[in-house]
Amino acid sequence: MLTGSYLEFHKEVQKFIPKERIFTDPFYTYAYGTDASLYRLIPKIVVQATKSEEVAKIMKACSMFSLPYVFRAAGTSLCGQCITDSVLITTSRDWNKMSTNDDGSLITMEPAVIATKANAFLAPFGRIIGPDAASINSAMIGGTVANNASGMSCGTLENSYTTLQYMKIIFEDGTELDTGSPESIESFKKSHKGMIEKISALAKKVNDNKALREKIIRKFKIKNTCGYGLNSLVDFDDPIEIIQHLLVGSEGTLGFIKEVTFRTIVDKKHKASALMIFKSMKDALDAVGLMRTRCNSRTKECDSELDEAELMDREALRCVEDNEGMPAFLKTLSEGATALLVQIKEKDEETLDKNIEIVMEAIKGIEPELPIQFTKDPAEYGKFWHIRKGIFTTVGSNRPKGTACIIEDVAYPMHTLTDGILELQEILKNNGYMNAVIYGHVLDGNVHFILTPDMSDPAEVERFGNMLQDVADSVATKFHGSLKAEHGTGRNMAPFVELEWGTDAYEVMKEIKDIFDPKGIINPDVIINKDPKGHLKNFKALPITNDLIDKCIECGFCEPFCPSNTLTTTPRQRITTTRYAQTLKNRNDMEGYEAFKKLMIYPNVETCATCSLCSLACPVGIDTGALIKQRRTELLTPAYRRNATFIANNYAGVLGGGRAVLSVVKVATDIIPHSLVNAMSAGVSKLSGGKLPRWSASLPGGHAFKDTRKQFGREDKVVYFSSCLNRTMGNPKPSKGEKEVDEIIIGLLEKAGYEVIIPQNLKPLCCGMAFSSKGYVEQGLQKSRELEAELNKASENGKYPIVCDMSSCTKTTRTYFETGLTMYDPVEFIHDFLLEKLPIKQIDEPILVHAICSTRKAGLFSKLENIAKICSSKVTIPEDVGCCGWAGDRGWNYPELNKAALRHLKPYIPAGTKLAFSTGKPCEIGLTEASELPYRNLFYLVDRCVG
């Protein structure tokens, strides 16, 4: 319940923000209050902004009522810099426009652009952005700049700070500055004369203090995101340049970054990597120093380039040695063995070879544990990088239940790197962290260490605090390094900023904060925090909740791939709210627990597509879809279960009834105008309390499977299983005289020389997905077992290949079949069996292709793409379109999910496109509805090319 200033603020923002983008209820405030850190604060109000005018008004409203506020983009931040117990301003995912200049040397991005999308946008120019953080697939550019996030390759010469060209900033009073516009700059200098004067005076004060100036220069020779970017004050004379560069790494404490323009870098295509195993940490670090001196342009003293050198200590290697695909030699390494994964990238082969020789020459005086050899084979060096990228994943997966997964991030001056890391190892062991893992980007003196403490235990919190103090004293005081190299200060290191920088520099930082935020309400307690114990408060509760999700580290890597991410909740939010419900239960607050569970039903359960694409993006492989299916099972009443059993036992009759109803409804929808159909459908569904599904103009008519086989007695045989949906529904928006999918497939199989075998007793057969996806596990298994038995008979126990016409059915059978019987996905069968047997003639017509979730999860995307390009010279597979959100039947009951999932589809459709293909009937309906193109099964494309 909002009171006082928060209630008044809520009334104010409702004047210009729609109510569906303002959240005050306990469910959504908790869901949106989650980030990737080990801290938890629950905002009182969450406001989602879609444009800069809204941000400015929200900021002014917060100032009017003196309410603290925090900006949040993707929420992958690791140090608690985007959480609050006050007002949270979130960036809409659709605030993501991009543009480039003619040669791609500059790219302009809105705050919700995801870094990998920017690189894909730049690909035609052969360029990329500089920052390459590990969260690049999910982090948004607003947060990337606000944290000055870097990564394995960019170092200090290609990060956000150094590649920044222009920025659009919204300040605490709502004023906007465009540093790329002379008119905006001139206007800002007049309206904010006092601010400009203060910035200029502060820069002069810093530069007049020789010792402080030299300290700043020295400390920014290595990665440093601890505190404000004081290098802005010594690198630039122009106050506008100082202001925009101070925003980099400011962690949302100085203003809002509305837009940013980067200078891009060349994406070098020629690569070679070597996994170097040395006998000790010291030998590995000595090798880094030699390579960096001889062959790294980070020193600005040579042309040759060493892009990456990733350190992995023995604990890091040990934690991945049992993972699938790991080299056997990892288990044989000595106790002190340390790895360096080195990568060189160049514009041509000749320069690459030259730099490999330079590297090998540089380290020839250090005897490795295993022979060192570079490889240019992507498959071979991909295995090496799989080791490196598997470290965090494996630690997160294997940590004890209920523990946090904490990644700390420090950097050392290069001349102290060896001594610093050796001392870091001792500090961790002395504090009882015997299995801590150390790895990182040592070309920049930057290393991470991973811990898995139980922060619900006061003794563990104390131990963690003692360890951080020891690390701070060592890194900052003794070795003059950075306590935060690339993860940002956040709440985690804010109490140590003065320790690292000294009083004079810290006072400058406080002046910066006062100049930009005189009321001190923009993200308070981040970077500047007076509480010396602030980093030991407000830890997340991570209760043991469910085996399916207990490994979750709440990083948010899953979120961009979720079809409901702009409608209701994301996988991370579903997990974190499920954990909160468990927390309430653990407190014995059963009233709160039951109330919160009810709030979870629509956003978490009903609008989850259970597509499980989240599991592909998750660093620890969590399938949130499986959690939701389990939750659906728990919600089933005995009556629902009895009905499901009746349907399963009488499936042929049920399908027949459905077929008849579809035919009747289809006649009606063909007569009635589409707008009226949608309105009537919505009204009927609403009157039924959502129990009756909605129908639309894309709803197919009924269809009965036709056995059109003509050729028998052939040696090559194939079993064709037509899915229950394809046996019941026709095509959405069918053309006159169009063949149904079963006729197309049988015709193609016979043209390829196969005798087609149809399973006996076909009418009641189903893979079980129609039941299991709704939570009816027992009935789903029953149908799967029935199908498996019939297919074993038809295929003579797998003697003949079996093909299905729906990818999702194939995926289901591979999950539930027990006899080892394999049913081929349409993509897999076309690619591996049909293409070589059919005379494919490529068409010159543009085609649109959708890779459904099952295809992606089965690793068949490249085969789908290959089929499409063989069949057509003009192929579009929309980059930003993943799960269609139809999800079997969700699209009928929750069409808003389909609409949200496919909101980006239409802009991807090239002019003149009339042909569109997929491999799943429900998806075809949803895609047709969203695109207004008649989507067809992929077999139709092959048939078109065979004639």
Description:
It is a single chain. The strands form 6 sheets. The protein has a 6-stranded antiparallel beta sheet, sandwiched between helices. The protein has 947 residues and is α/β, with parallel strands linked by helices. Among the domains are: 84 residues, 2-Layer Sandwich (Alpha-Beta Plaits); 93 residues, no CATH class; 184 residues, no CATH class; 104 residues, Rossmann fold, CATH 3.40.50. Strand 8 and strand 9 form a beta hairpin. About 1% of the residues have low confidence.
User: What form results from the Cα inertia axes?
Assistant: globular
**pLDDT averaged residue by residue:** 93
Spans of at least 5 consecutive residues whose pLDDT stays below 50 are 299-304
Share of residues in strands: 5-15%
Terminal residue distance: 67 Å
Number of helices: 39
Instruction: From the alpha carbons, calculate the radius of gyration and give it in angstroms.
Output: 30 Å
Instruction: Strand order, main sheet: write it out.
Output: 12-14-13-16-17-15
Total beta strand runs: 25
Helix residue percentage: 40-55%
> Strand count, sense and closure of the main sheet?
6 strands, antiparallel
Give the structural class.
alpha/beta
Domain FAD-binding PCMH-type: 39-267
Keywords: FAD, Flavoprotein, Iron, Iron-sulfur, Metal-binding, Oxidoreductase, Transit peptide
Protein name: D-lactate dehydrogenase (cytochrome)
InterPro entries: 4Fe4S_Fe-S-bd (IPR017896), 4Fe4S_Fe_S_CS (IPR017900), Cys_rich_dom (IPR004017), FAD-bd_oxidored_4_C (IPR004113), FAD-bd_PCMH (IPR016166), FAD-bd_PCMH-like_sf (IPR036318), FAD-bd_PCMH_sub1 (IPR016167), FAD-bd_PCMH_sub2 (IPR016169)
